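Hi there,

I know you've been waiting on this one. I reran it after we fixed the sequence typo, so this is the corrected version. Both the input and the resulting structure follow.
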Amino acid sequence: MNKRCWSAIMPVVMPSLPWMVFLVLTGCQFMQQDFDKYGENYRAVPVQILTKGDTKEQVVAMLGPQAQVIGSKVFDQGTVDVWEYQKWHASVGSDSIEQRYWLYFLNGKYQRWTSPQDWSEEARRIYESRPK
């Protein structure tokens, strides 16, 4: 750029530069507060670290508390519980759930995870496939 263009641009850019820096810095701070406010999980849920037979306490120690309990089904010789874990997606405006993971426990022991589906039917399959 030649000196004359620079001379024309600088009086316009310089007064607005502090405001641009301010907006960038406060925007970053706002995003951090946004994530902290919701307290949701924005990282992938590492279900691959779970092992069949882990207790509920071990699962909570590895993944943190579940987002919600989906349901529980009582059978003659056991109970199947279903927990939901969630991965959230940050977006402008309201954030949303990107992925749901349903974890199945037979008598308090982790069995497997699936994506949301008819949980009572899956609970029946898990119960019927247990060692007798």
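Quick highlight: Residues 3-38 form the longest helix (36 residues).

Best,
R. S.
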